[in-house]
Amino acid sequence: MNQVNYAPVIHSPQREKLEEIFYPDSDGKPMADNTLQFRWIMTIEGNLEVLFRDRPDVFVAGDLLWYPVEGRNDIRQAPDVLVVIGRPKGDRGSYMQWKEDNLPLQVVFEILSPGNRAAEMRQKFAFYQQYGVEEYYVYDPDRGKLQGWLRHGSGLIPIDPMTGWVSPRLGIRFELVQGELELYHPTGERFIGYVELVVQREHEHAVAEVQLILAEARVEQVQHQAEQERRAKEQAQQQAMQERRAKEQAQQQAMQERRAKEQAQQQAMQAQQQAVQERRAKEQQAMQAQQRVEQERRAKEDAQQQAEQERQRVASLEAELARLRAELTRK
């Protein structure tokens, strides 16, 4: 559906003056004239809030002043229920169109009371038609009368029939059963009363709280399990580290024992070599002693032989001397 910017954008030195203009949040009129009107306003507004609760770009409000023209606080209207698609949710004192990307209200609901006058409703119709409302619905619960208008070009044309009508912007369906308005969500669910809506919201809130508690419990369980797994992993790592250290210590001990064994073997080999050297030294000393004994024996034998020879020579000399003496004696 074509959209037209109905509020002028002002670019002039008068900007500061415009910003000083006060735009009241209230027109001094009550939200509703009776409980029936109030109940229908709250029912429609509440169900639309539920319908668009997951749409952050849909603004729904009730009895909120709409200022379509900057600098004109006298040009205003407060629809019973309004919807703007394309603006964020959030609290507002009023809807100042120039502060809202210049988007006009797109869907407006008015719930009549016996105090509403025809002239007043004609004035409202002219206002909504002039400032860009795309869908305009009026319900009179006391008379059981439902009317609707849809924008075509620059004007609003009547919707006929309203029974079975589906809002192009909202997707909701209108039914009028024995003078009683029935509204249906795009899912086919019927709009429920304000009290039922509150109970449903409380139930949804309670369910959400239970789900939150269960989710938190699951998160705690997952965190607890993760903590246990982390601790088990740390213990396994510590055990693996201890086993690695024990293995390293065993390897070091085995290396030390091997080195000690090698040292013992070297010492035994050295002792053996020393024993062999000592044995050889002893054998050499014994051989040398035996050789000395043999030399001494031979020297003794030589001395004895020499002495014997000397004795024999002396005896021979004595015998020769005796013979010579004997010969001398004979002469």
What is the topological layout?
Layout: H1 15-19, H2 35-51, E1 58-62, E2 66-67, E3 81-85, E4 95-96, E5 107-111, H3 118-130, E6 135-140, E7 145-152, E8 155-158, E9 173-177, E10 180-184, H4 194-330
Parallel strand pairs: 2-4, 5-6
Antiparallel strand pairs: 1-3, 3-5, 6-7, 7-8, 9-10
Key descriptive features of the protein:
52% helix, two-stranded parallel ribbon, 14% strand, alpha+beta, tt1808, chain A
Explain this structure.
- The structure is a single chain.
- The protein is an alpha+beta fold and 331 residues long.
- It has a domain at 15-192: tt1808, chain A (Alpha-Beta Complex), CATH 3.90.1570.20.
- It is built from 4 helices and 10 strands, in the order H-H-E-E-E-E-E-H-E-E-E-E-E-H.
- It has helices spanning 15-19, 35-51, 118-130, 194-330, and strands at 58-62, 66-67, 81-85, 95-96, 107-111, 135-140, 145-152, 155-158, 173-177, 180-184.
- The strands form 3 sheets. It has a 6-stranded mixed beta sheet with strand order 1-3-5-6-7-8. The chain has a two-stranded parallel sheet with strand order 2-4. Strands 9-10 form a two-stranded antiparallel ribbon.
- Strand 9 (173-177) and strand 10 (180-184) form a beta hairpin.
- The model has no long low-confidence stretch (mean pLDDT 87).
